[in-house]
Amino acid sequence: GRPFASGRVDAIVVDPRAKCTIAVASGPKIYKTTDCARSWRSSDFEANITALAIDPTSSAVYYAGNVNGDLLKSSDGGASWRAVRRIDGQRIRRVLATGGPPTTVYAVTQSAGMLRSNDAGETWVDLRKGMEQYEAAFDFKAIALAPDHPGTIYFAAKYGILRSSDQGTTWQPISLITAPGSVDIYSLAVNPKRSDEISYATATTFYKSSDGGRSWVSKKLPTSRAASVMLVD
Q1: Residue 213 region, left (φ>0) first, then alpha (ψ -120 to 50), else beta?
Q2: Number of H helices, E strands in the chain
Q3: pLDDT band at 212, cuts 50/70/90?
Q4: Measured between alpha carbons, how far apart are the two ends of the chain, in Å?
Q5: Of 96, 157, 94, 95, which is closest to residue 131 (Cα–Cα)?
Q6: Is the separation of the CB atoms in 154 and 173 below 8 Å?
Q7: Rounded to whole angstroms, how far apart are CA atoms 123 and 77?
Q8: How far apart are CA 17 and CA 55, in angstroms?
């Protein structure tokens, strides 16, 4: 229904402190409800919003990214926004905020790697240097954080899957059944209570490792469609 009867939704976030507070990115607008979608208000932007995140330590702080490479921050629950970083010509695919203080924020681009902020989005570090040795590592597919090991990131790209244990400064490849660059990974998930339990899916197959990627089991998906999203309870 309104306001999403037509158009495209690129991102949704739910306030972890208030389940009826939801923000939605649709085209050049961010919609927000505080009453479980009974009513909405919107903020308008010049470019399509493609990524959203909420600070898990503060319901007032939101982050967003757009199709032009602008990273935006709101400190008043989405009522007003300011640009905190620009990555020219790069679509922002994901923004992730982890608990602090201070809050760590990651921004993932479509084809230019990642950035990290350790001060709630005020300054940023480019993380491309640690990835550039892996061919096609900048062709982003999916990302997952390990809640039980802060600073551990799993990053899926056309290359395969890379793992970092130091907030993205350095990366190591995970050995997969599939050869590097041979398949497209559509989704990736990590068990929030056991970060060595990793799952990913291609267009046809589900893969799971329970030992940090040293060994894998696979199952064909019961569908002709790609598994574009994966979650672990």
Answers
A1: left
A2: 0, 20
A3: very high
A4: 28
A5: 157
A6: no
A7: 21
A8: 10
| Separation CA 169–CA 135 (nearest Å) | 17
For residues 1-5, give the mean pLDDT: 79
Contacts of 4 (CB under 8 A, 6+ apart): 24, 26, 31
DSSP 214: S
For 140-171, write each residue's pLDDT tens digit.
Answer: 999 999 988 889 999 999 999 999 999 999 99
Band of pLDDT at residue 101, cut at 50, 70 and 90: confident
The alpha carbon torsion through 160, 165, 168, 174 (nearest 10 deg) reads -10
Single-letter residue type at 136: A
The pTM for the full model equals 0.92
Cβ(65)–Cβ(117) below 8 Å: no
Three-state SS annotation for 121-164: CCCCEECHHHCCCCCCCCCEEEEEECCCCCCCEEEEECCCEEEE
Instruction: Count other Cβ atoms within 10 Å, centred on residue 133.
Output: 9
CB hemisphere CA count around 148 (13 angstroms) = 8
Nearest to 136 by CA among 154, 166, 110: 110
CB 84 within 8 A of CB 101: no
